[in-house]
Write a structure and sequence with these properties.
UDP N-Acetylglucosamine Acyltransferase, domain 1, six-stranded parallel beta sheet, single chain, mainly beta, globular, eight-stranded mixed beta sheet
Length: 172
């Protein structure tokens, strides 16, 4: 039986499109297509996280961003994560989805649609949250633990639930 792989996920810092000073990669981090990943300064990537770059589009992670352990960060559709963003353990960020071509074609066999995700500066994403393709999370927003973000979240909003809904604005 013949099989192929997308690679081992093992990387060297010089493989990245950009990697700022003092980035930390904990044990078990896997990186795919680092040539399309841009990291700012002082980025922390927790244990067993996967940075899943893609052969096209880019993943950009801003200065002083913290990514918890066991996250899956997907960049196929394009991903921009701002500065000073906190991403809790177990978060999933997805930038593609299979298109529904009707019942005659299994979803797994249907074409893939790509949509970028943007997370602006100073956002906090709670443990286990899922961010789906095409979403923008505005400056200073907070996403609750376990939330599933399917729509844009305005700046300085607190969003919780499945699907995530804005509950209120953050205090001034």
């Amino acid at each position: 039986m013949t099989h192929r792989s997308h690679g081992t996920g093992v990387f060297r810092l010089q493989d990245f499109a950009a990697c700022g000073e003092q980035c930390v990669f904990e044990t078990g981090v896997l990186v795919f297509h680092p040539e399309n990943i841009h990291l700012g300064k002082n980025v922390y990537v927790g244990h067993q996280t996967i940075l899943k770059g893609y052969y096209k589009n880019t993943m950009s992670i801003g200065d002083e961003t913290w990514i918890g352990q066991q996250c899956f960060i997907h960049g196929a559709g394009g991903l921009t994560i701002g500065r000073r963003v906190g991403i809790g353990p177990g978060v999933r960020i997805i930038t593609s989805v299979h298109k529904d071509q009707g019942r005659d074609i299994p979803l797994l066999c249907s074409p893939i649609a790509f949509a970028p995700v943007t997370i602006e500066d100073d956002v906090d994403v709670g443990v286990g949250a899922i961010i789906l393709p095409g979403v923008t999370i505005g400056y200073g927003a907070q996403i609750g633990a376990g939330a599933v973000v399917v729509d844009d979240i305005p700046s300085y909003s607190i969003a919780i639930g499945v699907p995530a809904r804005v509950q209120r604005a953050r205090k001034q």
